[in-house]
Amino acid sequence: MAAWKKELGWTFLLLLGVAVIGSMTGLFIPLLFVLIVSLLIWQIIHISRFERWISNGGRGKYPKAKGIWEDIYYHVYQIKKSEKKRKKKLGKIIDQFRKSTDALPDAAVVLGKQDEIEWANSTAKNVLGLQPSDRGQRIPNLIRFPVFVRFLNTGDFNKTIIMPSPTNSQVTLSVRIVSYGAGLRLLIAQDITQLRKMEQMRKDFVANVSHELRTPLTVLKGYLETLRELDEPLSPLLSHSFQQMHEQTERMQHLVDDLLLLSNLETKPKKADCVNIAALLGKICTESENFNDSPGRIELTLATDANLYGDEHELRSAFSNLLGNALKYSPKDSPVKVRWEQTNTTVALHVEDQGEGIVDTEIPRITERFYRIDVRRTHQVAGTGLGLAIVKHVLLRHDGKLVVTSELQKGSTFSCHFPKERLC
Ligand code: ADP
Fold first, then answer.
1. What integer pLDDT is reported at residue 71 of this predicted model?
2. pLDDT at residue 1, as a whole number
3. For residue 266, what pLDDT is reported?
4. At what angle are helices 387-397 and 236-267 packed, to 10 degrees?
5. CA quadruple 122, 126, 132, 137: dihedral sign
6. pLDDT grade, residue 379 (50/70/90)?
7. Pocket lining: 329 vs ligand 1, CB cutoff 6 Å
8. Distance from Cα 366 to the centre of ligand 1, integer Å
């Protein structure tokens, strides 16, 4: 039987006893009074014992009790026991989490709503110079690099910033922030010194090789020209061989030129003059038509006379590549539309052709270096596979982006979007 039913049963029996004895002795009311007061005192004693036990943290075995109080003690004791077990388990998990984050090669710092440090792993001590005593301090007061403070203030955490380590300027860090929970943020700083060194080595290697190849190529081309222009008639075999050699040296020259241009885009500081885009596009269209032997194919529309801050030489390379591709990868008699326009949010150059188009799955890859779609098809068209990589880099250096839309057998549109802040 449940304890409270038992308790109720006892009370009822006592009341019955009092009623029987009371009716026999005529002392019902005084007896009832004595019973109620006794029951009250009994309950008060138990309540006070319970209060003493619980205010001591309910530690150890509970005091002996009878009836419903035994049940109450038992249940509270069980709740406390399972709570203790849960705490122990949670403690273990937290301990394991601490150990694993401490073993992380990256620095991890939990930041509160006011950018205050709530927790940091041990790598954060070495890499960011944070001490256990810095807990609760605002991180921009400890790491004062302007790039880092700006990053925290703007709150645009889709980006990653690169900054030197506050403890060692030779170490380069890549810093990311991930928001989670209610206003909490996790800062992760990764040591990318080796990666940067390798990247620099790659850039230097490409720049050096391209540069060193230039002179022998020029010499080769010069001798080939001389041989081709000899007065003596050449045998068909020799004439074919010279033609092949000429074509291949031309191809190599384009490759070296494109590689050098790309390497310059990666290493040279940016220039920003006010570039007259309308005039530039006019020149490029004429040049491209002449170079690709396609007179009258380009339809240029200048819907705006907006000019851009930027590097004329770089913009020329990017636009020429897009126009060259549109002419190369579409039928000889099809038009190529070039439109320079301004919308509410951007200024854009659209180059639209009526060529074979590009499959959706290939579009993300065409800006990769040396990537050419369907090598068999493109082999008949001269190219290095570096043109769109150059376009992408130039646009990056001008805060712009390339958007490609294409439909198979209908054509493609390559659009260069620039932010309005670039207008001049
Ligand atoms: P390439 O020197 O081969 O033209 P790009 O980097 O300029 O190198 O272009 C990469 C590949 O993207 C090309 O090989 C071609 O397959 C595809 N491509 C570029 N522009 C167009 C276009 N307008 N229409 C169809 N395919 C194109």
1. 87
2. 56
3. 87
4. 20
5. negative
6. low
7. yes
8. 7
Interval between CA 271 and ligand 1 midpoint (Å): 27
Say how many Å lie between the CA of residue 322 and the centre of ligand 1: 9
Whether 355 lines ligand 1, by a CB cut-off of 6 Å, is yes
Q: Is the pLDDT of residue 376 over 70?
A: no
Pocket flag, ligand 1, residue 209 (CB < 6 Å): no
d(CA 379, CA 359): 18
**How far is the C-alpha of 244 from the C-alpha of 236, rounded, in Å?**
12
> Ligand 1, closest atom to CA 321?
7
Domain-wise residue ranges, the chain: 2-98, 104-191, 196-267, 273-422
Q: For domain 273-422, give the CATH superfamily.
A: Histidine kinase-like ATPase, C-terminal domain (3.30.565.10)
Residues 6+ apart with CB under 8 A from 407: 357
Q: What CATH architecture does domain 196-267 belong to?
A: Orthogonal Bundle (1.10)
State mean pLDDT over 169-195. Answer: 92
In the CATH scheme, what is the code of domain 104-191? 3.30.450.20
Helix axes 193-228, 236-267, angle to 10 degrees: 150
Please state the atom number of ligand 1 nearest to the C-alpha of residue 357.
25
